Amino acid sequence: xxxxxxxxxxxxxxxxxxxxxxxxxxxxxxIITSKAQTTRHRIMGIVNTPDMQIVYSDTPGVLKPNxxxxxxxxxxxQSALTDADILLYVTDTVETWDKNKDFVxxxxxxxxxxxxxxxKMDLLASQQELETxxxxxxxxxxxxxxxxICALQKINTDLLIKRIQDLLPDSPPYFxxxxxxxxxxxxxxxEIIREKIFQTYDKEIPYSTEVEVELFKEDGKLINIxxxxxxxxxxxxxIIIGKGGxxxxxxxxxxxxxxxxFFGKQVMLRFFVxxxxxxxxxxxxxxxxxxxxx
Length: 294
Hints:
With 294 residues, the protein is of the alpha/beta class. It has nine helices and nine strands.
């Protein structure tokens, strides 16, 4: 028999969902920064063995939306509750269950298997603290399994993978057995560039930017990439470029290095910075940038 299924990862911002995703897939699929709300899309990573296919989905952190982009991000997270064969609800050792009561209530009503993943267990001072957390989550989600882990150090992730494999339903594979993701190459270029923007700029700037790849052309061992960084205001354009272009050059250097590592080829990367006023509240722009969750 062959087993296959969708394992969807949900939770609040900054609990380590993307780190867990990359650990489970064994590849760097999701971008990771210390800032909240880095993940904007639902991203699949596929693990294949001869008799099994696990389709993991990383999702944006659950939040109360302030603009249309965040409404789309929340829709990605909510859709993960409807098509999961197994749901991983990721929390950590700092946040409490009532940080997002409504979403936890939705999780409690699910009929599919739920695993509460308590991440960052290495930050706890004692076993008693861990047992208290486990008891609290058992009270909240009595049907769920509780698995404490540290995704960054890969503590207990083997146990989590074993439980996922045990719960996976019998099914033929949903994707080709050599597939790693459902996303095209251009998507990962935009994600890597966005990651470097989050790492380079402070405050509102990373959240006001979007990246679009206009050209992705492979020529032997070289990939030519032309990308546009969109911002919402003219003043932000100046900050992105920086004095003498220094800030943008730094983003380009960091991004090119990671893109080359991702594709295993030399990369020629060129940037343009453009203003797309209030794009985070524009349905037209959000559809164009792939934020329609349908």
